[in-house]
Design goal:
This protein is an alpha/beta fold and 319 residues long. Helix content is 51%, strand content 15%. The protein has a domain of 221 residues: TIM Barrel.
């Protein structure tokens, strides 16, 4: 009897322990769910308040979400692409470096002249008037599609130096100056413009330069003028612009020294200035060393992105 009573008591104790265990488990489960719910509510609250107050937010997301820009339509994307392409094209055009080469003093001989005009890039040949080969070189250069200029002789500050036939001198009368300019223009065929040969004294004289430019404007050739800048006090370039004549100034002299290393250095300077300024006029002379340097180096300049053009192209795009 006692054994049966003890067995019943043990069974009841086991049942009580099981019941308590189940109750505790349910209680823990509910507590966990409540905490999760509470945390979600806090996150939602913080997110909402953050938009209003700009307060700091603790991120509970372990990995950042990937974001992508979404455009309203494909049309907007097309517009952006076209705008970028247009900007790149404009930059390329405006920054394209250009060099125009003027080769002075043609007319005394033909050997170097023929070599120069056979170069396979644009050259502007500046030809002195009334010399033995002046007209012949001008005609041949024109046939070979090189540009021709009149190299108008003018008196230098050192009056003992002879500029050659057809020179404009400070003691000449107005009519003599005008007639000489007309004769010089007529003596060299196919010209597109003019630059000064010597002329440091004349290009400083506004009165004389005005006579010269007035005769230029009377022709139907629409001639341009390049100031060779043989004098730092030259007023010729400014006066030409004032009188409505397309004009530019010389940037670099290539061969003040008839030495190939020197000429190479001057050509490299012209290259650097072209990249900095965009446009350069480089003047050389009818010399064999100048020819050799141009023949060797100019193709390399072209590979580096420099465009070689006639003076007329440079001046027309400069106005």
């Amino acid at each position: 009897m006692k054994k049966n009573n003890r067995l019943i008591v043990n069974l009841m104790a086991i049942l009580v322990i099981l019941a308590v265990s189940i109750g505790v488990s349910d209680l823990l489960s509910k507590s966990s769910r409540n905490k999760a719910s509470s945390l979600n509510g806090q996150l939602a609250f913080v997110s909402a308040s953050d938009e209003k107050k700009g307060s700091e937010v603790i991120e509970y997301i372990s990995e950042p979400e990937e974001t992508t820009d979404i455009y309203e339509s494909e049309k907007q994307i097309d517009f952006i692409i076209e705008d970028i392409a247009s900007s790149e094209a404009e930059e390329e055009i405006t920054t394209l470096p250009r060099i125009a080469f003027i080769i002075d003093d043609f007319g005394y001989e033909k050997g170097v002249a023929e070599k120069m005009m056979d170069l396979d890039f644009p050259l502007t040949l500046s030809i002195l008037p009334f010399l033995q080969y002046s007209k012949e070189i001008a005609e041949e250069g024109c046939e070979k599609n090189q540009e021709i200029m009149l190299h108008l002789p003018m008196e230098a500050n050192n009056s003992s130096v002879n500029p050659g036939p057809g020179a404009i001198r400070s003691y000449m009368s107005e009519e003599n100056i005008r007639q000489t300019v007309r004769d010089c223009i007529d003596s060299v065929p196919c010209i597109s413009g003019m630059n000064n040969h010597m002329g440091s004294k004349i290009t400083e004289d506004e009165r004389i330069m005005k006579f010269i430019f007035e005769e230029f404007k009377k022709t139907d050739l629409d001639l341009y003028f390049v100031d060779s800048k043989t004098s730092q006090n030259s007023i010729a370039y400014d006066l030409a612009l004032e009188m409505g004549i397309n004009s530019m100034e010389r940037t670099v002299f290539l061969d003040n020294e008839d030495d190939m290393d020197y000429i190479k250095g001057q050509l490299l300077e012209a290259k650097e200035l072209a990249f900095k300024k965009g446009k350069v006029i480089a003047i050389g002379h009818d010399r064999i060393n100048t020819y050799y340097v141009l023949k060797r180096m100019v193709p390399e300049l072209i590979k580096e992105g420099i465009e070689i053009v006639f003076v007329s192209t440079l001046i027309s795009n400069n106005q």
